[in-house]
Amino acid sequence: MTVPATDSDSNRAPDWDAAVTVDARGLSCPQPLLAMRRARSAHAAGTLLRVLATDAGSWRDFHSYAELSGNPLLRAERCGDCFQYWLRAGQ
After folding, report:
1. What pTM does this model have?
2. How far is it, in rounded angstroms, from Cα 40 to Cα 63?
3. Of 7, 6, 78, 69, the residue nearest 36 (C-alpha)
4. CA-CA distance, 65 to 18, in Å (whole number)?
5. Rounded to the nearest 5°, which phi and psi values hold at 11?
6. Positions marked catalytic
7. How far is CA 55 from the centre of its chain?
8. Could you give the maximum distance between any two Cα atoms of the chain, in Å?
9. For the residues of the chain, what is the DSSP string, one character each?
10. What is the distance between the alpha carbons of residues 88 and 1, in angstroms, rounded to a whole number?
11. Residue 5: which residues within 8 A CB-CB, separation 6 or more?
12. Can you tell me the distance from the alpha carbon of 74 to that of 8, in angstroms, rounded to the nearest whole number?
């Protein structure tokens, strides 16, 4: 399942391959979300982050976080048992 990409920072698509990867695979809820929050704080504002997770609850957690915090998910995908989330740091 893929959520469509949107990036309000520019009119062009983000360079998904250039994202800083946060590997939270194997971590159970809420650790993937906490790893993402640490990465958002550690990188310069605007840095594209990609979080990898294997916990099925991360799908709900990341979407809820985006909705409640106002920090949008730019892209979300599920590939087999791995979930991937893209968002910007420092926003």
Report:
1. 0.84
2. 16
3. 69
4. 23
5. -90, -5
6. 29
7. 14
8. 36
9. -EEPP--TT-SS---GGGSEEEEETTPPTTHHHHHHHHHHHHS-TT-EEEEEE--THHHHHHHHHHHHHS---SEEEEETTEEEEEEETT-
10. 21
11. 13, 14, 16, 74, 75, 86
12. 9
Domains annotated for the chain, with CATH where assigned, are: 25-88 (3.30.110.40)
Residue 91: which of 36, 45, 41 has the closest Cα? 45
Task: Reply yes or no on whether the pLDDT at 4 is more than 50.
Answer: no
Average pLDDT rounded to a whole number, residues 66-73: 92
Tokens of 63: 């979407």
Task: Pull the structure tokens for residue 17.
Answer: 């391959």
Pairing of strands 75-79, 48-53: unpaired
pLDDT beyond 90 at 6: no
Residue 18 amino acid letter: A
What residue type is 19 in one-letter code?
A
